[in-house]
Design a protein that fits this description.
By secondary structure, the protein is of the alpha+beta class. Helix content is 33%, strand content 26%. A seven-stranded mixed sheet has the order 15-14-16-17-13-18-19, sandwiched between helices. Strand 4 and strand 5 form a beta hairpin. The longest helix is centred in the middle third of the chain and has 15 residues. The chain is globular.
């Protein structure tokens, strides 16, 4: 379901004339009796753009919204509406007006900044039927397995979903802004048909791996996007998750990463970790940091990934990207080999076992900058997770090595944004001399206290990051509370800041 669908439902249910959304204001439903607030919270331009991009027709999607005004029809389940969207000087103003009858397909006004090439600049052309919401009727999937899967990938892109979930005898589902949204109009997909669909794009090596061990990972690329694909067997038959990998790497400037995080990218050596639960945007943050290195240093970068996600072209750096099971046998083998390949920076997609962690620490100690990821919930717990991977008789040695090589940990979670989308809350641990001493002495339980007292040095606790998002009206207090690890502490912080949580 598109984010605007409930608002359009209210437009028809209240017999309104139109809904108005503006930057710095909420959403107002206009009726014959007057205006009613639909969303009282002031909206940002980004929130409005994100919501309307979901229902914009396909030809407006690239570069949406541009500058100027555009209009298009939207065939909603409750009744057809006309959308007008104006974007000027960083501010957005949009109206959704009710129409008594279906209206013809839209045409794009000849606004130069909306053109996407010489041909687009010369003329405007009729547009196809706009994207339908999940609740509206749709044709069944094409009979050809590959065409059927391509149709679902296009749906995923149209809805700006992060993941496509496919399970045998279950309707397709998309993860949109963190929520699982079913699309029943396509109907359940039988186990044999789903396997045919997935095998239509899986390389031969991965088909053989799935038949042998019942799961496999690979990357798939179309003209519009790249996808990380995991195919697995379960009690129903075959299942898969396809995650969208943006073709454009977000820059550190667009993500708003702090100068203290950027300073980590200029280090000559050391270990820098980006951590968080699955689906928390670790790969996006790490790609932005590597892109920053690529733009600002003249070095040799080697990445070891499973599979390759973001593609990094050579800029100021030479970049070699290796995929596990395609270009190398394993993470640990590739990382060991990297020491003989004259790297300056090494990115390890996942520190998934003891030997890989040990080699990564050794690589960082011997004069290389190593970036890696771990699935941990907080920055301090990352240190304990690494040490606990090793036998007790090796832990004192690892504590010593880690105290010297670890330079920073960025731990993040994604929180629902007001009006749609998700925002990253980032906890930042910088390994100052005080933190290094605590790691060496086995007193990691004191690291959170150091983070509290060293905020001026660039340290940020997760609760402080969540509180900042609430204060800037990016996320709701309750959504920030749900993502907190130290919930009672965040509740007290929210109350002192004037954001009490609902009693429920």
């Amino acid at each position: 379901m598109a984010r605007l669908d409930p608002i359009i439902d209210k437009l028809h249910a209240k017999n309104g004339t139109h809904v108005l959304l503006e930057t710095g204001a909420g959403a107002m439903l206009h009726t014959a009796a007057g205006a009613l607030p639909v969303i009282q919270q002031p909206l940002t331009t980004q929130q409005i753009v994100g919501a309307f991009a979901e229902i914009a027709p396909a030809e407006l999607q690239p570069g949406f919204p541009g500058q100027g005004e555009v209009a298009w029809p939207y065939d909603h389940a409750a009744g057809p509406v006309e959308v007008r969207f104006e974007h000027r000087d960083g501010k957005a103003r949009a109206t959704i007006a009710k129409r008594a009858a279906p209206i013809p397909a839209p045409t794009v006004p000849s606004v130069p900044t909306l053109a996407r090439g010489p041909a687009a600049a010369r003329t405007s052309t009729p547009t196809p039927t706009p994207t339908r919401p999940a609740s509206s009727a749709a044709s069944p999937l094409p009979g050809d397995p590959r065409e059927a899967l391509d149709a679902l990938l296009r749906l995923m892109l149209d809805k700006r979903a992060s993941d496509l979930h496919l399970s045998s005898d279950v309707v397709p589902m998309l993860r949109i802004d963190g929520d699982m949204v079913p699309f029943p109009q396509y109907g359940p997909i039988a186990a044999t048909r789903l396997k045919e669909m997935l095998f239509s794009l899986a390389p031969k090596r991965n088909r053989e791996e799935f038949d042998a061990v019942s799961d496999t990972d690979f990357a798939h690329e179309t003209e519009d996007a790249r996808f990380r694909v995991n195919v697995f067997a379960d009690r129903r038959g075959t299942g898969a998750v396809l995650r969208q990998i943006p073709t454009k790497i977000l820059t550190v400037e667009e993500m708003g990463l702090s100068q203290h995080i950027l300073d980590l990218c200029h280090l000559p050596k050391g270990l820098v970790l980006v951590t968080g639960p699955t689906g928390s945007g670790k790969s996006t943050t790490l790609a932005a940091m590597l892109d920053y290195v690529n733009r600002n240093r003249e070095d040799h970068i080697i990445t070891i990934e499973d599979p390759i996600e973001f593609v990094h072209p050579n800029k100021k750096c030479l970049v070699n990207q290796r995929e596990v099971a395609v270009h190398t046998e394993s993470f640990k083998r590739a990382l060991r080999a990297a020491l003989r390949e004259d790297p300056d920076i090494v990115l390890v997609g996942e520190l998934r076992d003891l030997e890989t962690i040990a080699i990564a620490i050794e690589t960082a100690e011997t004069g290389h900058l190593v970036f890696g990821t771990l699935h941990t919930n907080t920055a301090p717990s990352t240190v304990d997770r690494i040490i606990d991977q090793f036998p007790i008789d090796r832990q004192a040695q690892i504590r010593m090595m880690l105290s010297e090589s670890l330079k920073g940990v960025i731990s993040q979670v994604l929180v629902k944004k007001i009006g749609g989308g998700r925002a990253a809350a980032q906890e930042v641990l910088l390994c100052t001399s005080s933190v290094s001493n605590l790691i060496r002495e086995g007193k990691t339980f004191q690291i959170p206290s150091i983070m509290q007292t060293a905020k001026g040095q660039g340290m940020v606790t997760l609760n402080d990051a969540l509180l900042d998002l609430v204060k800037r009206k990016v996320v709701e207090p309750k959504d920030a509370y749900l993502k907190s690890v130290a919930k009672s502490e965040l509740k007290a912080l929210l109350e002192r800041a004037g954001f009490p949580l609902p009693e429920a």
